[in-house]
Amino acid sequence: MRTDFPLFPDRASTMATHVDALFFYLLTVSAFFSVLIAFLVVYFAIRYRRRSEEFVPPRIEGSLTLEIVWTVIPLGIALSFFFWGARIFVSMNQPPRDALQVYIVGKQWMWKVQHADGQKEINELHVPVNRPVQLTMTSEDVIHDFFIPAFRMKRDVVPGRYETAWFEATRAGRYHIFCAQYCGTNHSRMVGWVSVLEPREYQSWLAGGAASESLASAGARLFAQHACNTCHRPDSLARGPNLEGLYGRLVRLSNGQTLIADEAYIRESILNPSAKIVAGYQPIMPTFQGLIGEEGILQLTAYIKSLGKPSAGGPEMLPPTSQSPLGGAVPPPGAPTPGGASPQKGAPVR
Amino acid sequence: MSAAEYLPPVEPEEPRDNYLNVAYGVRSWLLTRDHKRIALLYLASVTFFFFIGGLFALLIRLELLTPAGDMVQAETYNKFFTIHGIVMVFFFLIPSIPAVLGNFLIPMMIGAKDLAFPRLNLLSWYIYMLGGLFTIWAIVHGGVDTGWTFYTPYSTLSSNSHVIPAALGIFITGFSSILTGLNFIVSIHKMRAPGLTWFRLPLFVWALYATSLIFVLGTPVIAITILMVAVERTLHVGFFDPALGGDPVLFQHLFWFYSHPAVYIMILPAMGVISEIVPTFSRKHPFGYRFIAYASVAIAVLGFLVWGHHMFVSGQSVYAGLVFSVLSFLVAIPSAIKVFNWTATMHGGSISWKAPMLYAMGFIGLFTVGGLTGLFLASLGVDVHVHDTYFVIAHFHYIMVGGAVMGYLGGIHYWWPKISGKLYPEVLARFAAIIVFIGFNLTFFPQFILGYLGMPRRYHSYPEEFQVLNVFSTAGASILGVGYLLPLVYLAWSMRYGRNSGANPWGATGLEWKTTSPPPPENFEVTPVVDEEPYSYSAPGEVRVVG
Fold this sequence. Notes:
The complex is a heterodimer. Chain A is built from six helices and 14 strands. Chain A is α+β, with helices and mostly antiparallel strands. Chain A folds into two domains: 9-48 and 95-212, Sandwich (Immunoglobulin-like); 215-318, Cytochrome c-like domain (Cytochrome Bc1 Complex, Chain D, domain 2), CATH 1.10.760. A five-stranded mixed β-sheet of chain A has the order 4-3-2-6-9, with helices on one face. Chain A has a five-stranded mixed β-sheet with strand order 5-11-10-7-8. By secondary structure, chain B is mostly helical. Chain B is globular. Chain B starts with 25 loop residues before the first helix and ends with a strand. The relative contact order of chain B is 0.12. Classes of the chains: A alpha+beta, B mainly alpha. Chains A and B meet through helix 1, strand 1, helix 2, strand 8 and strand 10 of A and helix 3, helix 5, helix 8, helix 9 and helix 10 of B. Strand 1 of chain A pairs parallel with strand 1 of chain B.
């Protein structure tokens, strides 16, 4: 049995610092009230212990002032917890725009990791230090949960959905990955390690990896293999919408609705094509459910993302407009993010 | 009012005709319509289920003594914690105080002969036992491994254990809760003694009234949700499974819409017990009677609006998270009001350190810790880290075991003289209360640290740096187990060998203490008429005002 056991977790991400600060505030307030109540109960029990069976103490009438005091003060403290916690939570849900993209598929009972450059890992995740990393995650079977205690990061991984989370590691090292949502027999074996590397080590890891092709080129291969290009083609023979420049654009559907083409839309269109029909097209596409797994879908999505601008705007596509209430297109990676005084989406709490 | 009245009479004569000796034989129990006998049927059954649930808790703790997961297979371990959760939540905690103490006391506290629907009351016990049989069947035939939360799509898609019998057991037992709640609501509205206005009711009755509202309004939701799981599992109708076009997170919404209010089903009655014990053993009117009463109702109402705090990391929208977070902080306020008022009640009292009071003081301390750690979980940013870790386990065991079970044991001791007509052995009972308090803290306090370190729930094996804290926890659990066995032994002993208690050994107020112990079958020989405030320990002239 190890006796050098820790009492506090590693703190290895930008978010961990913020979470711990709020944790210590909560701990201080809780310790104060616990000790206060425990002290009063014990003190009263001793000070007013029954000395005589005959004695009946005088009645003490309740006090409205006291009731208001011990309603309003806890309420004020509770609201301070709420606002602080909410601030951290909002920034946890706003990944920085220049984040490195990593794709994770959970299945009973392993984590399959794919990097944009094509490196694949199982139950291991290699990331560079001091660089935001965004995880896009889904599950092939039941609900899992990707949890890295040292980063104070946790997110359910839900089948049929893409969940995203992000972190920025601040210390090189190896830290636990746990599955935190009960997922069956070997739930407690669905664990792994995240390795945070110095930039140079990370580069050599990338170079040394056995990646034969990038995620997008794997997707291109799948695209050809399933003959998707028979219908999805830029020329006049196309029976399906042109996919060039699709990602992040506004799509008009046959029922008059519009949406932004994101990962979830592309995934749904592959698995359940008749759910959303693009205006001007017939629902002729068969489902690829069972033919293409979650990893394949991620590769196809990466390929579609990599397709350039459409040669000529098809009738189904609308150019992204700045008036769009849903916001414009996603800028290319590495685009300068607007600074200045305006509330900057995606900025971590500092 | 002369103080000598409060002296317990020495070895009084037992009344000739009471609810226990009025009839003998199995039929007289199984066909009884007397709420007191039905309460004892429930007492025997929930005690049975408590020790079943406790046995599985012990097996869990034994497995976690070592990090390797080397005592039983992972699949077996998963069944252990599932059975522990299902049995403790649905077959012990939810029925415990309402069906045992509530059944026994509510008619007496309101000065009535029985509940409004005595046959329905007996039926609810049979329904409870039928549901229990399904669950026992599932356990005996190999168990169920979904966790007590039955999260989809695991429960509908993957699990090959006995999900349907276990789910049916819970479905059926739900009807017993609904009937009990209905019976209490109607009785409290329609059968109060002359002069017993709402604000003359004991706080225990207020708490049980609020609980009954949740029973009636919330239980149907879990019933239909569980049924949907069974339908999806057998007929493959897609409610929750995305492969069938369903939404797995929808299940979580429906499940927690009942199961969070169910937490208040478990703790509100215990709060009611504490609100009786503290005034009795302090010999004082409860400080802020109306605030405690209103707080019970506020908890019942607000409790319906906070279910989404179980889903902060499930992918529900950020805005939903913000709303559920702020509402969760609001529901903490009425609980805080109660804690402050109980503490203030002790101020200036004449405090007796009898066993029920020790349980009550333990309750106040442990419930405070449990409630405050709930604030950690309501804080979005911190919840993301501690969600689904041992921090959550520690938190809800401080509420459920430190709160609800301490309240239940305190209540059983407090009303034992009324139930049995006998005194329990006081020294042994105080010793057991202290053992329970120590064992409990040793078991669950280390789990807060484990949780913040990141140890996830429902882990059969775990990294070895977590072992020392787990060893503390297992050691504590063995102490706790002894603390729970002691009352079982000495209370049973006292049924036969205990000293007669007399009608009112504690000098307590309240109508239940005005009748003999054990009470006659019809509770009161004459319908009592209430002409005074509740908890009037001191004469009206002796009022002191503070603040």
